Amino acid sequence: MDQGEVQSFLIVFSAIALSLAVTVVILFVLFQKRKNRLLKQRARDKEAFEKELSETQIEIREETLRNISWELHDNIGQLMTLAKIQVQMEESKSPQLEEASETMGKAIQELRALSKLINPEALKSLSLAEAVQLEMDRFNRMQFLKASLKVEGDTKPIDPKEEIILFRILQEFFSNTVKHSKASELLVLLDYMDGSLEIVAKDNGIGFEQKADGYSGIGLKNMRNRAKLVHAHLELFSEKNEGTQLKMTYYFVD
Amino acid sequence: MDLQYLPYVATVVQLSTAIIGTIHYRKYSKAKEKFFFYFLWFAILVEIGGAVLSDVFVLPNFWLYNLYTLISFSFYFFWYHSILKRRDFQKMVLTFAVLFVCLAFWNFTFQSWSSYHKYTFITGALLTMVCTIFHFWQLLNSDEILEVKYKLSFWISTGLLLFNMGMIPLMLLSSHLNFSEIQFYILIITLNFILYGCYSIGFLWTKEKYNRS
Fold first, then answer.
1. What is the dihedral of CA B193, B194, B197, B202, to 10 degrees?
2. Is there a contact between A12 and B146 if contact means CB atoms under 8 Å apart?
3. How would you label A160-174 residue by residue, b for 16+ Cβ within 10 Å and e otherwise?
4. pLDDT at position A213, please?
5. Is the pLDDT of residue A231 over 60?
6. Residue A107 to residues A72, A97, B37, B86: CA-CA distances in angstroms?
7. Which residue range is the domain that position B94 belongs to?
8. What distance, in Å, lies between the first and last C-alpha atoms of chain A?
């Protein structure tokens, strides 16, 4: 083997090796790129699907609430009103009947308030602060707990569709407070700032332990999904016996 | 090591790949890849036959390799024809096969049987490379790309592409370069390592559920 022979061998060998290596790299890059594109596409599809799903869920829920609201207002409300009139028609009213009539009046009032608060059409005509105030009044009347609302800054109109979602998130929180927390006080703060609205809802109940594994109940999950839908930032703090606090930041779109 | 045994290295690599393929046969027994496995054993028989002819009986064996070249590339075309899904790709592969067989028979008729028909090989190798690219194209444009490393056909195509890519210049230049036999073998064995390495990875990594189409 002379030197020229070795040289030409090495040249051929390296040329072949190089072209193979280049081919492998090209193949790898090509496949990787394509794969990433497909994965991204899938993630996007999934996100879109989930959004669609939450929107549909909300729609169904609102529809149900609307039906219940009508039913309460038009059917049960009418019956109660009729009952009240019937009692009042009684000429020789005993004190018991007077009281019953009064109770019925209260019931009708509650019924109307509830019907209004769950009816999406009625909510559309209210601002968020007004809607929350109605809910607070309802709690105060029921004497479950002492509820209060504080509004700071200049109120700004919010897209009714998004407003209703924010309100439903708050309602979810309130219903948890009423049902589970054994709280005696509920405080809501709406702080209108230049670009955003900060909503804080706080109770002094028993709270709950935040699960470390990230598992969250359906209620909390629903709240998060809805917040995502209106691009609001939602945080929930709670500690055993320290109460629960919901903090939500909604950004105005101009 | 005695250098005369060098050619056997390739056969040993081939044999171990076939054994790996046998062990993992279950994973692709329902797919078209199984034909590839049969073909692998056939190739080993040819290699051994060729070695026995020349080393034991000291007979010429070029006729065997010429026939093998025809059969192997025809098999690749058949195989790609069966795994490619696009009609136009299938038609192209069919055309390749016809072209190749015609050329092989032309060379059988007009060239000496005591030499290797390298232009048959070069044509077959080039056309096979096109087939592998068709197959890559198919993988790139399907959801299978997410699990490509589990697909045996991907590894087979990679091996074939790299092997033929290396072999074509070698064949073309073989008469112009005055390589000694050993240098030639080093190159061929390296390429064999790449080819059968790819097959082996494929056999080892493949999963049953990705070999069903």
1. -160
2. no
3. bebbbbbbbbbbbbb
4. 45
5. yes
6. 11, 15, 82, 72
7. 3-210
8. 81
Q: Could you state, in order of their start, the residue ranges of all structural domains in chain A?
A: 1-125, 127-254
Q: Which residue has the tokens 């091996």?
A: B159
Mean pLDDT, to the nearest integer, of B96-100? 95
Number of domains in chain B: 1
Task: Using DSSP, state whether B2 is helix, strand or coil.
Answer: coil
- Confidence band (pLDDT; 50, 70, 90) for B161? very high
- Please name which of B36, B187, B22, B37 lies closest in space to residue A8, comparing C-alpha atoms: B187
Distances (CA, A) of B29 to B66, B77, B152, B205: 30, 20, 11, 15
Chain B contact set for A21 (CB, 8 A): none
Examine the pLDDT at B94 and tell me if it is beyond 80: yes
- C-beta neighbour count of B138 within 10 angstroms: 19
Strands A243-251 and A185-192, sheet pairing: unpaired
Q: How confident is the model at residue B3 (pLDDT cuts 50, 70, 90)?
A: low
Confidence of residue B202 (pLDDT cuts 50, 70, 90): very high
The reply to whether residue A27 touches residue B158, judged by beta carbons under 8 angstroms, is yes
- Shortest distance between the Cα of A29 and any Cα of chain B, in A, equals 12
Burial A224-245 (b: 16+ CB within 10 A, else e): bbbbebbebebebebeeeebbb
Does pLDDT of A19 surpass 50? yes
Cβ-defined contact of B146 to A8 (cutoff 8 Å): no
**Residue A37 pLDDT greater than 70, yes or no:** yes
Measure Cα distances from B113 to B62, B72, B109, B119 in Å.
Answer: 7, 18, 9, 13
pTM flag (> 0.90): no
Q: Under an 8 A CB cutoff, do A13 and B186 touch?
A: yes
Residues in chain B: 213
In angstroms, rounded to a whole number, what is the distance separating the alpha carbons of residues A187 and A204? 9
Cβ contacts from A onto B, under 8 A: 55
Question: Domain A127-254: which topology?
Answer: Heat Shock Protein 90 (3.30.565)
Asked if residue A176 has pLDDT above 80, the reply is yes
Cβ–Cβ gap A9/B177 under 8 Å: yes
Q: Which residues contact A69 (CB under 8 A, 6 or more apart)?
A: A115, A116, A118, A119, A122
A34 vs B contacts (CB less than 8 Å): 140, 145
